[in-house]
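Entry 14. Two folds queued back to back today. First construct below, sequence then structure tokens.
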Amino acid sequence: MEFRTKVELPVGQGEIRHSDSISLWGSCFAENIGKLLSDNKFDCDVNPFGVLYNPLSIAKSMSILLDGKTYHEEDLRFDKGIWYSLMHHSSFSSTDQSECLEKINLRIVKGREMLGKARWIIFTWGTARVYEWKETGEIVGNCHKLPDRLFTRRLLGVEEVVSVFGSLLKKIHLINPDAQFLFTVSPIRHAKDGMHGNQLNKAVLLLAIEKLCREIPSCHYFPSYEIMLDELRDYRFYADDMLHPTPLAVNYIWECFCSSFFTADTLRIMKDWQEIRKALEHRPFDAKSEAYYTFLSQIMLKIERLKEKFPYLDVQNEIALCQTRLKK
């Protein structure tokens, strides 16, 4: 007997391989999945503007990359000794204006390069509520804890999201015609407007994605939100705030993601890499012993064999780590 509701996974919609470049955009759940992909040696670029929650902020950020914009002093704000951008996460902020601009522009260059070659572009939308800067009426990416009176807050409409994103995807296809777009809705609940408000948020996102997937063949959907709500509906799968999924829940959704988009060959590469990764994390009793040097040499050999078989894997950091430890 089944004692839970199983969510149907989109098996067969597409394959994600280690030879594919991947660009990820969206909420902190995108960061979680991006880290898991990177840890398993996929070529990823995660959130060039930092965490973004609503689809229109994501679309605006991507358009900035596609248009080749460079940030200058007039694009920043200065408050309480900090330079920051209303389109960027606070991780880009700095007490030094030049440092802030350098961090922003370096990520723009890398993000634009990835958009041009990414086989998969993954979007994780968190909320359909946006903040508009009253001075200009423009939607911002981050409020930086500024007073609410400086913003107008509203709920996006389904057609508004579809129109903006439909144009954006066409723009991306002009420079990268082979790109595939994978959408998911973040399982993190946005409780600021209450649970009913959260459901309205998610409903707008789900309806917009459904329409995009019907109209554009290169669009696909992965049910992160449904897995969390239907399969993992117990509160033991939520963190202390009762809004974010626990690491256990994230790992389960990741397993579902793997089952949906990875072939047996890809899973085998991941298994081989995880064995190497765990070996590298081993801390010996005596780091200068002959036995440990032999152990490191064996790891080096495994890495080199994997690289020889799959030349697109970036393993330079791990090789350098082994070489450093062998010289000690």
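Second construct, same run, same settings:
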Amino acid sequence: MLSRRGFIKTFGGFVVAVLSTVAYGIGIEPRGRPRVVSHRIVPPGWPEGLRLRLVLISDIHACDPYMPASRVAEIAHQANGIGGDMILLLGDFLSGMELGSLVPPEAWGEALRPLQAPLGVHAILGNHDWLDDRRAMQTGRPGVVKDVLDRLGVPLYENRAVRLEKDGHAFWLAGLADQLLPARGLDDLAGTLARVTDEAPVILMAHEPDVFPTVPARVAVTLSGHTHGGQIRLFGYSPFVPSRFGSRYVYGHIVEEGRHLVVSGGLGTSAIPVRLGSPPEITVVELG
């Protein structure tokens, strides 16, 4: 039988463990230097001789004190050092936090200004870039984040596709408007792919991965964020995933029927300032 002293020691150890876990999830894991996670993919029909390195930055959620402009600047510097052919910004620049204070858009925008890559920096919006922007929600048009990206010279892909080339090989970069907001979303997958006018491979940016079951095999790879890798993962399980598919598209490189999806774990937090078992990351996709 457990003695009173033994009970107190056991209970005290449990409390210390819980408090230590909470402290780690708030103060250490979410604020650490992002890890770099790489995926090498050769999609079906990919042109031989075309090699692309894509650097993905997703879910910044700029917010003091959890993601201040100074940390965004450090992330930009780290991303530049990876040496990607393109840097792709996959949405959710705005806070999404109920705690902390907003970082002025001009501040996080200037922190991203150093980003550069031979084939450019390209962006899509996330749901919080609508939800946390009153003007955008009222007008139904991209607001403050588009203003920042325009000042930076970063093209925004709202159901848009652009033909690019590397080493004499063509490919298409396409991006969907957000699937959730405003109202029921503005995404138009069919209309976006209708802009593709030849057989060159297509790379698709889509903030939420839920569109993936409807993405045709014509698309070489779909790149998403939104889930934060679950944000809290315990023994590989995420109690809450913002997807109607649950954990099916929560994180990483997913292959279904020969089609490829990469879901970045992202960088910031939303709702609560905790990441546990899902550290911040910059994601790299090597194609070819």
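Quick look at the second one. The two ends are 63 Å apart (CA to CA). The chain has seven helices and 13 strands.
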